[in-house]
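Hello, quick one for you while I still have it in my head. No rush at all, and the record is pasted right below.
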Amino acid sequence: DLFTDSLIAIDGSKFKAVNNRDLNYTAAKLKYRLQLIDDSIAKYLLQIESADRQEAPIAKARTERLNNKIAKLKDEVARLKGIESQLQAAPDKQLSLTDPDARSMKTRGTGIVGYNVQTAVDSKHHLIVAHEVTNVGSDRAQLTSMSEQAKQVLARNELTVVADRGYYNGEEILACEQAGITPYLPKVHTSGNQAKGYFGKRDFIYHAKDDEYECPAGERATYRMTSCERGRNIKRYWSSACVSCEIKSQCTKGKYRRISRWEHEEVLDAMETRLDLTPDMMKVRRCTVEHPFGTIKAWMGATHFQMRTLKRVSAEMSLHVLAYNMKRVINIMGTTALIAAMQA
């Protein structure tokens, strides 16, 4: 059994599509290009005024050349206005002319127009257990889907998955726990209080038995209210002692320091504790997922995908994954053992 371990590393990587960046449009790109054209037309009009003061033959030739440039720019404006109307009708306000399903995505460099390929890789043999091609640039909604696909392929009742902080999403982590999947992800701290010189949320200790937080001054912040934000029930805590606290200047400028807690935050706290107890888990993730992506991209070359549209690109990626897994199994078992296993 090549999948004796139930530890799966999940990651996503951006692959280039058959669509030049100049043929992908967003509202910001259109606005920028139209502004460049307006600036160019204004510059050419000033040059025409200057040319009128030159000798007649020179002025005529220069004016005709500049007027031709302005006419071409106006045609380009008309073309971009047509694209703008198509852009407004697009669900995600993005338009790609060569590959209609390709999307502009952020990468570590300048960004690409392409697809986000998700993989679930086993930590022992680096075989790709499950994969999926998406045209959504973010990984935040992919954890549960990829974990459940891997769990189904492996036919396991329980599964352990590890991913980077790009997958950190409370609802996704909760869904994994409910499906018998134990996730390991580094916690994302979004509060800007520490950057301002204030105590961060992790400086407040939660006491589950009392449903209270203990602040750095030793006071208790008690539960006050619950509000619904973006479909999530958020509990609020604060202490009446804030008003006379001696270290309040290190905590807040307001009357009270309010602490927020999601109703299922104990799931996130438990995951953070697991990761603290197994700090090498993120090193395992990095060593596991980078090998398949690096190998497949080396095979593809600089252009990456050759097909267009999500359906065809998914089929192309499936062939690459099949070839990768077969080569890995040959390296692990040998050709004779693999053929025998296939014939059995």
